[in-house]
Amino acid sequence: MKVLVVGATGGSGLAITQTLLARGCEVTAFARQPQALRGLPGKLKLLAGDATRSTDVDQAVQGHDAVVVALGIRENALRVRLLGSSGTTMDVRSQGTRNVVDAMHRHGVSRLVVQSSYGVGATRHLLPWLYRLVFALLLKPQIADTEQQEKIVRASGLDWVLVQPVNLTDEATTAPAMASADGHFQSMKVSRRQVGDFLADAALSNHHSCTSVALSGAQKGAAQSRAAVG
């Protein structure tokens, strides 16, 4: 299967790229500086481009079976809130996703998997109060853009999946994340590796079609399991 990963050099983008390669997929890593992924084992194509430029995205999408979007701003959140982003446009999620959706329609690609954020859209009312405060004070522009991104995905008419992880960590856990279609979570942490595994599952199957899925890790001492999604 041929899968395009948009935003492949970010933490989750790298994780999904590694997982897809390990599963034998042909992966195109699309990013502004994809050379950072050079040397990964497997059938990997590196493609330089900017997700906010429609011509770059159009060339990237053609010929793939599925697209995974893992866009975001990697700079310090406080600096971005006070001064704005120095290297990435503030609407990278919504603009990049809109370009992906348009290109997928043009080239007949139907399966779209998008990493969003817990506390956006359907899970907004489930976010713990402390995180609501952080969203409002520190992450307001990014959250507003993610809200717009989700609206674009839901209105796309594609075979989409929205994946909403809670706080991301770099832990090396191999247990699957808890996946919940009703927004429930076990803890407010989940590893990028777990998210990458689930993004790969969503890209390679139709088990979660047109569903928003919350991802979380297990509480300490609790067994992790995949929740039924549908």
Question: Summed up, what is this model?
Answer:
This protein is an alpha/beta fold. It contains seven helices and ten strands. An eight-stranded mixed sheet has the order 3-2-1-4-5-6-10-8, sandwiched between helices. Strands 7-9 form a two-stranded parallel ribbon.
List the helices and strands and how they pair.
Layout: E1 2-6, H1 11-22, E2 26-31, E3 43-48, H2 54-61, E4 66-69, H3 77-83, H4 92-107, E5 111-115, H5 129-137, H6 140-154, E6 159-165, E7 167-169, E8 178-180, E9 189-191, H7 192-204, E10 211-216
Parallel strand pairs: 1-2, 1-4, 2-3, 4-5, 5-6, 6-10, 7-9
Antiparallel strand pairs: 8-10
Oligomer: single chain
Structural class based on helices, strands and sheet pairing = alpha/beta
Q: What sort of overall outline do the alpha carbons produce when their principal axes are compared? A: globular
Evaluate the radius of gyration. Answer: 16 Å
**Low-pLDDT ranges:** 221-230
Count of helical stretches: 7
Strand content: 15-25%
Q: Mind describing the biggest β-sheet?
A: 8 strands, mixed
Mean pLDDT equals 90
Side-by-side strand order of the widest sheet: 3-2-1-4-5-6-10-8
Annotation, overall tally of beta strands: 10
Percent of residues in helical segments? 25-40%
Please write the string of helix (H) and strand (E) elements.
EHEEHEHHEHHEEEEHE
Distance between the termini: 24 Å
